[in-house]
Specification:
Order of helices and strands: EEEHHEHHEHEEEHHEHHEHHHEH
Structural class: alpha/beta
Number of domains: 2
Largest sheet: 6 strands, mixed
Number of strands: 11
Shape: globular
CATH superfamily of the largest domain: Exopolyphosphatase. Domain 2
CATH topology of the largest domain: Nucleotidyltransferase, domain 5
Number of helices: 13
Radius of gyration: 19 Å
Helix content: 40-55%
């Protein structure tokens, strides 16, 4: 029996998964998320701000305490879009080494490519799905980037691409009003359309039979579509959502103010100001899936890159025995 921890440090959130692996069976012990907005302002300044680094450190220290409490034997932390883009990323690495050294001496967070990020997300997202539903197109909509990957349940990858569009990036670049004005919405939609045209050139989206949406924008939309009074991961995981209902929800979120969104109990307060950007991206994704693959619904997965990392840590430990 071994316990492993996976940490995903994105543009918007810092997420932790602690799982126990026993004879090939994985049991989730802790899954938690905090909005730290590490990527705040990076698109404009090119640097991680001191305030963003301090927020991230505070949450990471809390996660380290949890890992010690659960007696985690190994940890992997990946840093994605915001850190890849920052000129002062070394300060971030030093901080993670200081905090995580108590779990894995000498270790610090890793910056991974968009393609590796996509592959890890794919592995986690399809783990609980019927292989016969493939090929799958997994879309991990983050704060700074969106990973699109098409592959089979056995891990065979047909194509992957990291598009430079995310809910934080779109909000900071284009959506200056609260709520966004018509001109901003149109400009954002055109930007998303251009990004997705590149996706379709690089990834065989038309091969996919089942589309799977991951991360906070998709899971929040699922909670709203299901009419949940509070966020319930079990109800959301692998829920099937029809495009017509998703489009209505996404359009409505864009018309609301940040304050109106924050008042909804299933929308995390730290996501309320950027989910309009995420909703515009979702609308573009639905159009792409409909036009290129002829599908009219998608699945929403609570599992993602964290689950892919746990599987990798377990396999590495088995090989070292």
């Amino acid at each position: 029996m071994s316990r492993y921890a996976a940490i995903d440090c994105g543009t918007n959130s810092l997420r932790l998964l602690i799982s126990q692996v026993d004879n090939g069976q994985t049991t989730e012990l802790v899954r938690t998320m905090e909005i730290v907005r590490l990527g705040e302002g990076v698109d404009e300044t090119g640097n991680l701000s001191a305030a963003a680094l301090a927020r991230t450190r505070a949450v990471l220290e809390t996660y380290a305490d949890l890992m010690l409490e659960y007696r985690v034997s190994d940890v992997r932390m990946v840093a994605t879009s915001a850190t890849r883009d920052a000129a002062n990323k070394d300060a971030f690495f030093r901080m993670t080494a200081e905090v995580l050294g108590c779990i894995r001496p000498g270790y610090c967070a890793e910056v991974i490519s968009g393609e590796e990020e996509a592959a890890l997300s794919f592995r986690g997202a399809v783990a609980d799905l019927d292989p016969a539903q493939g090929p799958f197109c997994v879309i991990d909509l983050g704060g700074g980037s969106t990973e699109c990957i098409v592959g089979d349940h056995d891990g065979t990858i047909h194509g992957a691409h990291s598009a430079q569009m995310g809910c934080v990036r779109l909000t900071e670049r284009i959506l200056g009003h609260n709520p966004p004005c018509d001109e901003e919405i149109e400009l954002a939609a055109n930007y998303v359309e251009a990004c997705l045209e590149e996706v379709c050139e690089l990834v065989p989206v038309a091969k996919a039979r089942t589309f799977v949406g991951c991360a906070g924008t998709f899971t929040t939309l699922a909670a709203l579509a299901l009419g949940l009074e509070e966020y319930d991961p079990k109800a959301i995981h692998n829920a099937e959502l029809r495009f017509d209902a998703l489009r209505l929800l996404a359009r409505h979120l864009v018309t609301e103010t940040t304050e109106q969104r924050a008042a909804n109990p299933v929308i995390h307060p730290g996501r309320a100001d950027v989910i309009a950007g995420g909703s515009i991206i979702v609308q573009g994704i639905l159009n792409m899936a409909e036009q290129h693959a002829g599908v009219s619904s998608l699945l929403v997965s609570e599992k993602d890159i964290l689950d892919g990392m746990i599987a990798g840590l377990s396999e590495r430990a088995a090989m070292m025995r």
